[in-house]
Amino acid sequence: MAIEIERKFLLNREKWEEVEKPLGEFYRQGYLLTDPTKTIRVRQTSDKGFLTIKGISVGASRAEYEYEIPLQEAKELLDQFAVAELSKIRYKISIGNHLWEIDEFLGDNKGLIVAEIELQNEDETFNIPDWIGEEVTGEEKYYNSNLVLKPYQNW
């Protein structure tokens, strides 16, 4: 079984604004299924499409299966089958041996910025940059699949 181990954090906005950022990439993603125990997501980037199936989170871990699909099919799935959708700009920053993915949400989630780091195991140590704030791993309101149903601007 494919397992994703991911920790999620809010950012210190003042320090994040001072960071020299790489070029961000626009992501459009929609959900074909949003269930508390599983999600099926379609994601479109500038040049690729992905179909992702995720299971329920237990701590920082959950089952995840991700498949690259043709970009045009991703667009069609989003347009014709997504029950809910969001968009964001993703920045990728390498620190030490880890990749931080920072999502700056758009639309009804504008104002929310979340950083994620994927790990090999839940006890793995990693460097935390000074622009990282409070950890929100496991807080369901920050799951993308919940942000499409209960957007940040409505909190």
From TrEMBL:
InterPro entries recorded: CYTH-like_dom_sf (IPR033469), CYTH_domain (IPR023577), NeuTTM/CthTTM-like (IPR012042)
CDD domains per the UniProt record, alphabetical: CYTH-like_CthTTM-like_1
Residues of the active site: Y31 (proton acceptor)
PROSITE patterns reported for this sequence: CYTH (PS51707)
Annotated ranges, domain CYTH: 2-149
Domain of life: Bacteria
Designated name of the protein: CYTH domain-containing protein
